[in-house]
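Purpose: get a first structural picture of the assembly so the mutagenesis plan has something to point at.
Setup: two entries, given in the order below. No constraints added.
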Amino acid sequence: MANKSLVVEAQEIKLAIDLIQLGARLQFLEAETSLSRDRLIKLYKEIKGISPPKGLLPFSTDWFMTWLANIHSSMFYNIYKFMLQEAECSPIDAVIKSYRLYLEQVARQGGEPVLDFTRAWTLTRFFDSKMLQQSECTRCHGHFVAHAHDPRHDYVCVLCRPPSRAGKTRKSAEKRLAEV
Amino acid sequence: MSASINANVGEINELNLSYLLLAQRMLREDMPSAMYRLGLSKEVGSVLSSLSLSQIVKLAASSSILCRFRFDDHAILSSLTHDNKEQALQQAHASILLSGQTVEEMH
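Result (structure tokens, whole complex):
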């Protein structure tokens, strides 16, 4: 580590800053940069003004299947796949660029980002390890996040066939009342 | 009649010019994100971003519109516009369809 290039180090710090600003967790920063844990904690405190949250990364694929989470995950993953395959970005650049575009879209739609940065990154890892797949909706032909090995032949997405209780949260009920 | 056609062609030229200038600026600022927003391949993106102003002006002078409508499936277009879904959901759906579509159909 003694003769590590200053330029490389500066690039890694820049990357870490971008990631912290997007809401990355410490484990993620450790995996994606070669900066020491102490330096990352210091950087985190400097940018966020608080200590990084402790605790494990989410590890269940089920979260991505609930109604609104599935819509947001599918939005993000379609952009990510474009960045990777069409724009030929590196995986980390693809995550950063697609997550920014996802945030922008959600903001323009007047919604809240359901998918946080850590979950977005975990999502790409689940695809890498073949725990998730994209299934094509037989009605709209959109590609949606699904469990690996789920049958694909008569798949209909959560937007073409929303579950009956979909979107009927207390918040949306209040919003509807306010509009009347 | 011919006056209105002339006016339309004039507007098409303006649309082409705005489109090409906007596309070029976006591509030069951030190639991957611009490719995503425009639905363009890397090859087309690089050519567009390297065009000179006079090349852009010549290209824009066509009497046909140079950018293509991306919802070219009538069934999908009508389901996106006629569904009485919340606007946010409709936009989310449109976004999923557009980003998935470009990956497949650009080749």
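The mean pLDDT of chain A is 88.
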